[in-house]
Every structure is written in structure tokens, then in C-alpha cells.
Amino acid sequence: AERETMASIAEIRAAGGFHVAPSPSPPAEACAAGMPPCIEITGETLTLDDLDLAGCAGTQIRIADFVWDRVQAARDVLAAAGTDGKPVFGVNTGVGSLAKVQVSNADLCKLQLNLIRSHAVGVGDPLALALVRMVFCLRINSLAKGYSGIRRETLERMVLAFNAGCMPQIPCQGTTSSGDLCPLAHLALGLIGDGYMWDELANEWSPAAEIMKRHNCPLLELHEKEGLALINGTGFVTCITAVAYMKARNLLQEATIVACLSVEALKGTDRAFDPRIHAARNHNGQVQVAARLRELLCPFGEHSEIHNEHAQAKVQDAYTLRCIPQVYGITLDTLAFVEQILRVELNAATDNPMIFTGTDMDIVSGGNFHGDYIAKAADFLALATQDIANMSERRTFRLTTSALSGHPSFLINTEKAGLNSGYMIVQYAAAAITSENKVMCYPASVDTIPTSEGQEDHVAMGGFAARKALQVVENVEKVVGMELLCACQALEFLRPLKTTPPLEAVHDMIRAEIPKLEEDHFLSPDIHICVDLIRNGRLNSIVHAVLHPNSPPDSPSM
Known about the structure:
- The radius of gyration is 26 Å and the shape is elongated.
- A hairpin with a 4-residue loop joins β5 (196-199) and β6 (204-207).
- It has 558 residues and is mainly alpha-helical.
- Strands 1-2 form a two-stranded parallel ribbon. It has a two-stranded antiparallel ribbon with strand order 3-4. Strands 5-6 form a two-stranded antiparallel sheet.
- The chain contains 22 helices and 8 strands.
- The two termini are 37 Å apart.
């Protein structure tokens, strides 16, 4: 796999994919106090920002003191249940369709080891180390809720391994989200000394036992139910979907700015963004996006020179200009829905069976491991984000089509056309990626294949839903990057007229990196520059500095 440096969501934005990489140090600002950043694990308060931070190499975690009492209480219930000889799923029975087979007391610990080894059947590229850290952190948070019956010693050893940077290899394929049994088994596999962990010294995967020994981390010695507790949950699909969500949230902000550049470059009107129109329909996302468009196209109540020269008498534009609030608005509302699902799932108990303590003392088999919530959220995320690309590619087509834009064909000076192709093939590439995404937007969670002899007769297919959602978002970033490149070039043909101050600032930022296209040259590097700027949120930052110079740079704009 191509080796790229990834530490947190910011790095995943910049690099994308599931490539393996060495782990850089946490950001300097995170260590301003001279100590590495630390996340307190309570089982109840983990946030998306915490998950992002957990992806940074060097981040530490600690279990809140009050957690240990409930962890021990659940273990005590489990221990008491084991004395009466009754079958308890995954404790003294097999799993899946083998739940009817009871295991002898002498083999209860071996059963837990066998569960880890037999379920670690993953294939495909190893998960990025930042994502491994997130999955590891989320598994600890889930166990800390006190419904799993894990021993304090086991949980303490997991925290020790996380803090030492012992990151197991987790292949990205193999889960149906009937619980993320396969990928979480690979996480546990390294902690018992089997499988592989990332070796920062050798910059490669090495035997897990060697890495654990090097860092003075004792291997996990699994007792009753602990193996099952380690592998039953939704942490794998939740973390990948969380990354896709955070990238999509950033992308929507950036894509809205790029769309405004295209509106100006195509001499569009902002009449369709009149607040009365959107209040009459009154969808929250639509209202917010329209407000953002007005802020960018008429900041401080002043239209641009381009608008005043070309758009004042215009009645209406094509849908990809006129209907931005309606299309991007539902994307914004869908992201809000996905965020709600993720925030709950980050602090959810997803084990089976569940152990209840206190006056409600019991051990009950259920289905909280089922990944349909996250699988559906991932599919919705992909569908909603792809519509950004559908709009963006069509605007790129308009920008590069002389009859629609009024600019020279393919945005190259007419006298040089023919000898030079300009941005002709940029639009081809945008069309190809947009088409690719349409195939990937077929919802994975609509499919189900029964497993385990029919015992698990409906599964969520959340692993693929999450992975392709992330790929869809990364592809949309590329399509919007191509629109950005073309929109900035189109503005050159309207000079000396200027667009609005925030959009001029974006144009200036692009021109500091990419000169106006005068004749053909190797264009891929220019596209990569635009995509990287989008992935890192640079457009929103520069616009914010112009519009709100006295407010924090991370203030949300929508």
C-alpha cells in the first residue's frame, strides 16, 4: 500500500483511503502544556472531537475512577451466574448457531481464545492507523459502560496497550455488521499476542507479541466472556462512518463556497436565494444554505462588480445554480441526522449478552450489536454527499462549454484553442468520478445474506456501507476540486471586474498556487492542489477571515 502520514481526521482528509502509515506526533498545540492530550473514558461522554483526537498518535486515555465500580459489579454478576451451571450465551456455550452447545467449565477460558482466533478472518488492505486508534478507543469506551462483564485487569491492560501505541493490524474487509466480529477480533488478536502490530521502528507490520513486549505491555489473558466482549459491537463501522461524516461536513462548507465562485463566473443571479422563498418552504438545511450563499454573494449588503455588470437583469439560472439551497440543504439536514446517530452510537452498549447490575441483576441476550443504525446512516451519507458531485460536475460542464458560459471553449483563449485543449479533460475526469460514485451509492444496507446456519438471518452489511461512504466523500472532494480550478479560470475572462471580497480572497489563494492557464501543461498537480485545499478546509478559513475577522476561525458557517 502507498504509505502516507495520517494522525487524525485532518490527515485522513488530506490523504484519504485505508493506506498504512507511520504515526506522527500529536499536534504541537495539543501538547502546549507539556503533556500529551488525554481523553477521559466514562462510557457516556465520548464525542466526535474525542474520537478525532484518539486518532492522533501520542494521545492518551484514562478510565474515570467511578467506572471501575460498575465494571466490577458486572463481573460479579457474571461470576455468580457461572456457579449454577445454567447455559449463558458465549460464556459456557458456543456462539451463533452453536449457542445450543454447552462448553465444559474446564474449557471456558479456551473458548474465549478460540473466539478471537476463529473470528479473525479479515482480508483486504489494513485499516489506517488513525482509524485503528479510533476503533481501539471506542471499544474501551463501550466496555467501560459496565454491561460486558470484563475484568478490571483486562481493561487496564487494554488502556496500557493503547497508551503505548500498540496498534493491531485490522483488515478492512470481513464484517457483515452482525456485530463487527471479524475486525474487532483482529484488534483483540494483537492484544493476546497473535497477529501483527505496527512497528514504528521498522516502519512495517511485525508480530504483535514482539511489539507488546517491546513496550512492556502484558498480553491479555482472557477469562469467561472476555473474548466475546472484545469482539461484539459496532466500533469498526462507527469509526469509519464518523470519519466519512466529518469529511463530508467539511466538504459541504467548501463546496458551497466553490458553488458561489461558479455562480459569479457564470454571471448568475442571487435572486433565487431570496430568504422569502426559503422561509416559505422552511426546511432548516435549505434556509441555512441560502443564507450562506447570500453572505458570500452579497456580503455586507454589496453585490460584486460582476453581478452589477452582468446579472442584475437576469430572471433565473439553470438548476445547478438556482437550486443549490434545495440540493445542498438536504445534504446538510442528512448530515445532521447522521451526526445524531453517531453521537448516540459512540456511547452505546453494543455487547451481547448484556449484564445488568443492582436490583435489576440479570444476563440477557439481545441484539444491540446489530449494525443497521450505522449502516443506514452511512448509506444516507453517501447518497446525500454524492448530490454535491452531481451539481458540481454539471457546473464544471457549463463553465467549460462556451454556449452555456459565454467564455472561450474549455476556458482557453480562443486564439490558442485547438493547439491547446484547456480544461476539456478536467470535465471528463469529473464526469468519470461522478459516474463511479453513482454506482457506489447503491445502498449496501438494503442487502442481507443469512449467516451462521440461518441463526443470523438478517445482517446490516455496514462494513461496506461505511467504507464506500468514505470513498464516495473522497471522490466528491475531487470533483469539487475540479470545479474550483475551472471557476477560478473562468473568472479571469471577466476581468477587470471583480467578484465579492470573500470570493476574491479564495481566487487569490488559488492563484498563489496555480497560475492562470495560458497554454496546456500537466494539470493533475493543479487538481491535487485544489483538492488538498478543500480537504483541509482552507477555503472556509480564508472566507471566514474576510467575513468575520473578529470571531474564532473554527466558528461554523452553516
